[in-house]
Input
Amino acid sequence: MLTRPDVAVVGAGPVGLAIAWRCAARGLRVVVHDPAPGSGASHVAAGMLSPVAEAYFGEHELTALLADSAARWPAFAAELAEAAGVGFGHRTEGTLVVGLTGDDLAEARRLWSYQRGLGLPITPLRPSKLRDREPALAPRVRGGAVAAGDHQVDPRRLVAALRVAAERAGATLVPDAVARLSDLDAGVTVVAAGCGAAALTGLPVRPVKGQVLRLRAPGRGAPGFRHVIRGYADGESVYLVPRDTGEVVVGATVEERADTEVTAGAVLRLLRAAVDLVPELAEYDLVEASAGLRPGTPDNAPILGPLPGRPGVLAATGHHRHGIVLTPVTADLIAQLIVTGEADPLLAPFTPDRFVAEEERTWN
Ligand code: GLY
Output
């Protein structure tokens, strides 16, 4: 590259590529650095756009950001489809949250009542209505609810589409690994490197391992259910994400570990819970078992905005369980910050300074 870029993005996952697309579309010169685009957490992610079913006790600010980003998804998807000219499996059938046993249902109900208390749209269903929606559910599933606004997208196809859109808008991808931010020469550097952000910035981003399976419906047909199904099954939490391609993603473990080994015990627990909820899955092909590392943070919320004491460096990392749903809002807010210098008030609870002690804010 002959001219100094306006923006260097470290990391070509969905977040980094979407920021690059947004900035390049506004006329900035953008370079994205990644030796293996799309090989991080998004490679194993299921792609649930779940502002309601993933709203957990005590995470009010994160829940508001999830809802804001989910509301941006339809327009983001339409714009991306237009810009990239390829599909990425955006589906809007909604999500069923179900409990297998009475105890499982009691656990699910506690969360629904918390979610409903926040005004989130989740509606309990009679068992007969549940089965009308998804006859593939096991007869012994005790009950459930529908979160009609919780949708899905295929993260691997999303990364491919974002890459096309970013490159068509003029961004350049270079396949190099960035060891130090000081090696980059750009107007602004955006660290969107998932777990790799810790080594580059010192921010408290830690790997949270998730093991995930991919099944395929027999005869390459569509799976026998269309909603995303999130279930509690004998105390195990599992989600099942059906794709038009015949794939069903079954996930995921949540482990405080930094390796990406696949273990027999995790595969056993995920498959048992999946088949307990949807028995026909026992007949599907098991085509992939993989593990990835979510970028976790001390408060489970992303880290978005300027690094204190590091002029010209922005963080867009720590998306933990929510990288795919949070991609549109992250890209919009970070691009706005770069282009106009104005920080949207939505960013305030998520800026890096919440993790940087006063005495460290004068680095460099
Ligand atoms: N959001 C799903 C997961 O992290 O497993």
Summary: The longest strand covers residues 285-296. The chain has nine helices and 16 strands. The pocket of glycine is lined by residues 46, 48, 210, 251-252, 294, 321 (CB under 6 Å).
